Each structure stands twice: as structure tokens, then as C-alpha cells.
């Protein structure tokens, strides 16, 4: 890629589709859910049956406006829905209900934080509300591909699910950081919609899908080169790889005197490259026209301000604030974000733990057990309040660190809250001098050579006596107190 | 224009069809020409009714059997449609 960047300037553009997590579809009252029996979340309207009329989901509009506000957009005083016609069986109506001009939200921007903390501002052209299409399964062909398939099966459960499509303006100047920017932009959008609560934001389920536009122009040129659009790149890692692969491919074509075909391309994970899809021209005629069955959306200040008051803190700003408050190193903080436990650590600190302790548990034992059981840390069943309670039990010497780690495992097994588990399993540290003294005496009797060495001044040999005592008390002895007793005895 | 509409609608026309349709289109276009006035605002809905929204509550769903009852062909609870990229 380095070589390509000596000759060419990269121009990027992204179209990100976000599925909203409303209860019902955008224009029908069918359930909006993933993974149900095919064609069970449908109304007659979703199938395009005659005599049906669409209705507008009020929550879908609110979510669209919220997302627009979070992207610093202007909210359209008046917008409407339009029919976008195309020939494909994934929508029963033969058109997709979408928005032409104006979109519900337009002219915004979003600050994207790159790995080294540098902020790159991406301008947003528009964010419009539309509906998702049904799911096709191609059968009779090789490997489930559309080519050479004999027929296709259609599930309309997803048809009509509310989408917001976020369209960026052309992004110039990212240069060698274009792949990194692509990844950071997509994660930023994901973080924003997650913080807003308007989408489940699970990329592996296609809740967020990204089309990446890439073109190259000779350095110093002002006219953009021909672009390709790589469709449905569905992970932050893949979008970075797709952008990089497309930059290299286009540079090779241009270097050898060729021209770039304006087309859609598909990202292939196995070969880590894009392959040609269908040619696309700006003149694709979708015969947009305003949907006469749906009335205009007219917003006013009161409506917009009510939604604005509800907006959470911008994720990038929030991360900066938390990093400062918690005093984590860049690496520590980055690991916390990558592990997806930022919220949990924040709640734990709010509940009374120190930042260091909160990080230690969420990045340590909780993450380890979660990883072992194949779930995410927040889904393990350990709550921020549990972590605070465990810390308290350690602080007042009821349990030690090792026992505390076992307690985390027991919480994950559903045995209850920390103090209950410690009581039920008799895990409290043994600091009763009588019991400890007996164990120490036993250990000394069994290891006379060690006693001799300690008496000879080899203080580090004390450890060799603590070990058997801990074993005898099943790890529940207060190690500090054991050491004191040994030294008193040998003294 | 006839060619453009035919291409958009995926309809194959013979030369004879084209001539016939072009002749039929002419009077329609002429009669519409009177509305081609920049001073006229676009009208989509005749009534000034805005923000007709509904609550986000599930209703009127079909069962899978009902949904497929009118399908010419179905398989595994899904609509079956002919090959999409036939010949392309």
C-alpha cells in the first residue's frame, strides 16, 4: 500500500446501514426480531398483498432523529418517504420505502479517534430512514451462490425492519491511515448507536452493515477518480482489510495504464480480497417518487429538543473523560475498551470500588472465566455490586485474593452474592490464632530442617512453612498472620 | 422515451411495438405538458395532514401458513421464486 500512496491520494466514502431495535417494523405492525420461524413476522403489507396500506412507526422516527442529532446533523423541518423501485424478490412490494431529498437528517459530522488518539472528523452527508429487505437463500447452485442457482427461497421476516442509512461525504486526506480510519469510523458509529440504544448493534447479525467506497486520484489532482463500492463488509476488521485491498488493487490497475470500472464489489474473507460484482452507474434509475400512502414528517423545536435532552454523552468524549478520571495508561485503557467492559468498570467504580480494583477484576478473573465459558464478561452473571462486595471482603480480611477468585467462579455458577457464598461454603479466612497456631506447630514438626534454616537466619525459608499451613487450612489462612505466628514461635 | 421505460420495466419490445407505443404516448405527453410549469409546487398528498404516526405495538401478524397460502410455490416455510440471475 505504501507504494500506491506515493502516487495516489485515497478518497473514501461510507454507507452504513443500522437496523433499529424497535418492537415493530417501520411501516407495518409485524414484530421486528431476529431468528424467528421464517415468514412468521409478517403482515399482509409486508408481503405486498393488494389492498394494504403502510403506517409509520413513531419510535422509528424518534430513533432516526436521535441518531441524526448524535451525528451533529440538521433535522429536516419537513421530510417524506419515497418509493425506490427495483426488480428483486427480497421485497414483496417491488419497491423499497426510503427517503429521497430531504432525508430526516443531513449535514452532520462525527469525530473519529484513531489508534494514537488523533481525531479525524468525518462529514456526514445524510442519515435517512428506510426499510430492510427480506432474506434470500439461493438453492440448486454451488455453495449457495446466486449464480447458477435454480431458484431462491424468500423469508420476509426482515422485510420492513427499520434502517437508518448513514452516508458520509467523500473523505480525503486519510492517506496511509485510510484502513485504520475505516475501522475506527465503523466502530464509532457502532458505539454511538449502542450508546443511544437505538440498535442492538450486533455486527455478526447484520445489525450494522457497511458499504465502503474507495477511489484513487493522482496526488495534487482535484477531480476524484472512479470509485468502487464494496458491499456489506460486516466487521470493523474486515472494513479495514477491504479498504486496503481495494487501494492496492486500484493502484495496480492505474499503474498499468488501465481504468477503474465503476462497480459494486464483494469482500471475500477467505481470499482477503474484493471480487467484482455488478457494474453500477450513477444513472441507475430507481424511479423514486414520493409515497402517496405516507404523509410528511414535520418536526418542530419542541420535538427535537425533547429527543436531544435524552442523548447520552458522545462515546469518544466519554472515553477521554474516563481515561483521565481513572488514570489508566493508554494500553490499559485500550485493552478495557477492546474487552468491552468499559460500562461494567464505570458502574463498579460508581458503586464504590477503586478504578484499579475494578479494572483488576473485570480484566482479570471475570474476563478469564468468561473466556473459558465462551460468553462476554458482562453476560457472566457477576455484577458491579458483586465486585464491590468482594473488594470489601478482601479489605476487611474476611477472604484473601485467592479465595476471592474462587468466589467469582461461584457467582458465575449462580450460587448467589459474595457474602452468601463465603458463608455457605465456609470460605472465610482462618485468623483464629488457636487454629493457626496448631497448624503452624504441625508444619514445624513435619519440617525440622526448615525450622533449623530459619533459626540460622534464612528468613526466606519461612515460605516453606506457610505453604503447608495454607494447605492444611484449604487456602483460607491469613498468610500475614501465619508468618507472624511462625516468627513468634521460632523467635 | 419508449426505449427508456421499456428498459427500466424490463420489457422486450419489437420495432412494431415501439412505433405503436410512441404514437399512443404522444397525446398523453401533450396533455401533461400543460402542467409542466415551474411555478406549480409539487403536490404529493392533497390534504395538509402531517405526522400521521402509530404506536410501536405488534398487531395483525399472519401465521406462516397464512403468509404462504397464496404462494405459487413454497418450500421449508419460505416463498420459492425462480432463478434471479437467469441468463445474466
Automatic annotation (TrEMBL), chain A:
EC class of the enzyme, as a word: ligase
Reactions the enzyme catalyzes: L-glutamyl-tRNA(Gln) + L-glutamine + ATP + H2O = L-glutaminyl-tRNA(Gln) + L-glutamate + ADP + phosphate + H(+); L-aspartyl-tRNA(Asn) + L-glutamine + ATP + H2O = L-asparaginyl-tRNA(Asn) + L-glutamate + ADP + phosphate + 2 H(+)
Enzyme Commission number:
6.3.5.-
- Tell me the Gene3D superfamilies matching this sequence: 1.10.10.410
Family annotation (InterPro entries): Asn/Gln-tRNA_amidoTrfase_suB/E, Asn/Gln-tRNA_Trfase_suB/E_cat, Asn/Gln_amidotransferase, Asn/Gln_tRNA_amidoTrase-B-like, GatB, GatB_Yqey_C_2, Gln-tRNA_amidoTrfase_suB_CS, Gln_synth/guanido_kin_cat_dom
Which GO MF term does the entry hold, naming one?
Answer: asparaginyl-tRNA synthase (glutamine-hydrolyzing) activity
Q: Which domain of life is it from?
A: Bacteria
Q: Could you give a single Gene Ontology term from the biological process aspect?
A: translation
Q: Does the keyword NAD apply?
A: no
Ranges for the region named Disordered are: 259-287
Q: Keyword annotations for this protein?
A: ATP-binding, Ligase, Nucleotide-binding, Protein biosynthesis, Transferase
- Composition bias, Basic and acidic residues: 263-287
Ranges for domain Asn/Gln amidotransferase = 343-490
Q: What does this protein do?
A: Allows the formation of correctly charged Asn-tRNA(Asn) or Gln-tRNA(Gln) through the transamidation of misacylated Asp-tRNA(Asn) or Glu-tRNA(Gln) in organisms which lack either or both of asparaginyl-tRNA or glutaminyl-tRNA synthetases. The reaction takes place in the presence of glutamine and ATP through an activated phospho-Asp-tRNA(Asn) or phospho-Glu-tRNA(Gln).
This protein's assembly is summarised as: Heterotrimer of A, B and C subunits.
Family label: Belongs to the GatB/GatE family. GatB subfamily.
PANTHER family linked: GLUTAMYL-TRNA GLN AMIDOTRANSFERASE SUBUNIT B MITOCHONDRIAL AND PROKARYOTIC PET112-RELATED, GLUTAMYL-TRNA(GLN) AMIDOTRANSFERASE SUBUNIT B, MITOCHONDRIAL
Protein name, per record: Aspartyl/glutamyl-tRNA(Asn/Gln) amidotransferase subunit B
Species of origin: Enteractinococcus coprophilus
UniProtKB/TrEMBL annotation, chain B:
Classify the source by domain of life: Bacteria
Q: Name one GO biological process term.
A: regulation of translational fidelity
Swiss-Prot/TrEMBL keywords = Transferase
Residue numbers spanned by region Disordered: 67-88
Cite a single Pfam family from the UniProt record. Answer: GatC
Q: Does the keyword Transferase apply?
A: yes
UniProt-recorded Gene Ontology molecular function terms: transferase activity
Give the protein's recorded name: Aspartyl/glutamyl-tRNA(Asn/Gln) amidotransferase subunit C
